[in-house]
């Protein structure tokens, strides 16, 4: 529970370029120690591992906060944290129809306040955010599965293959089939 509180701010780190932390010798040492400690044959391995994980997360959280402060994005990350339940809802339902009213309810905001606050936090409206997340998922599935393009389109919430192909090509600069075959530099999710 304590650790989960530290993890929340990392949700949107990649969106702000804060997803790569500087090297830290203490962190490296603790991770090696955790690897050696997490052995079920050792007595009290779970307690020792839990303590090390807590220490590791506290260091990662400090490094993350320092990097965000240096980049001047701490305020935006705090704003996105307010929408953690909304983002979780979106990610769980990317293949389904996502009702705007449910997003407003989860955020505890009216329609107009939600739209303004969401755009302020993420730099785009909720509709665009959802589409970008669907396209990121589609790119991952195209690269990592043998599912058909049609299956991926529907799994990612696009109502028709034509809509998926159009949105994908506009965003990525290549069709889903071409992307799967060759990838497109600079557009990986």
Question: What topology does this entry show?
Answer:
Blueprint: H1 2-7, H2 25-37, H3 45-71, H4 74-81, H5 84-92, H6 100-107, H7 111-122, H8 126-144, H9 149-155, H10 161-172, H11 176-182
Helix pairs in contact: 2-3, 4-7, 5-6, 8-11
Entry keywords:
disordered N terminus, mainly alpha, 189 residues
Order of helices and strands: HHHHHHHHHHH
In percent terms, what proportion of residues is strand? Answer: under 5%
Which runs of at least 5 residues are low in confidence (pLDDT < 50)?
1-6
Care to count the β-strands? 0
Q: Overall 3D geometry?
A: globular
Structural category? mainly alpha
> Fraction of residues in helices?
55-70%
Give the termini distance in whole angstroms. Answer: 29 Å
Radius of gyration: 20 Å
Major beta sheet summary: none
Count of separate DSSP helical elements: 11
Overall pLDDT: 80
Q: How does this model look, in words?
A:
With 189 residues, the chain is mainly α. Helices cover 68% and strands 0% of the residues. Helix 5 (84-92) packs antiparallel against helix 6 and helix 8 packs across helix 11 (176-182). Residues 1-6 have low confidence and may be disordered.
Task: Quickly describe the structure.
The chain is an all-alpha fold and about 190 residues long. It has helices at about 1-5, 25-35, 45-70, 75-80, 85-90, 100-105, 110-120, 125-145, 150-155, 160-170, 175-180.
């Amino acid at each position: 529970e304590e650790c989960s509180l530290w993890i929340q701010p990392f949700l949107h780190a990649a969106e702000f370029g804060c997803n790569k932390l500087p090297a830290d010798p203490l962190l490296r040492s603790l991770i090696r120690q955790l690897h050696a400690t997490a052995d079920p044959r050792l007595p009290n391995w779970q307690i020792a591992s839990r303590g090390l994980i807590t220490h590791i997360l506290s260091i990662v959280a400090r490094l993350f906060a320092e990097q965000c402060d240096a980049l001047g994005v701490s305020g935006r990350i705090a704003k996105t944290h307010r929408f953690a339940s909304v983002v979780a809802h979106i990610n769980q339902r990317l293949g389904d129809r996502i009702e705007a009213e449910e997003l407003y309810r989860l955020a505890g905001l009216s329609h107009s306040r939600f739209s303004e606050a969401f755009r302020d936090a993420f730099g785009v409206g909720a509709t665009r955010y959802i589409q970008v997340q669907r396209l990121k998922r589609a790119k991952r599935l195209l690269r990592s599965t043998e599912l058909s393009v049609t299956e991926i389109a529907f799994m990612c919430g696009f109502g028709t293959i034509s809509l998926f192909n159009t949105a994908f090509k506009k965003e990525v600069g290549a069709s889903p089939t071409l992307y799967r075959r060759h990838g497109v530099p600079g557009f990986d999710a």
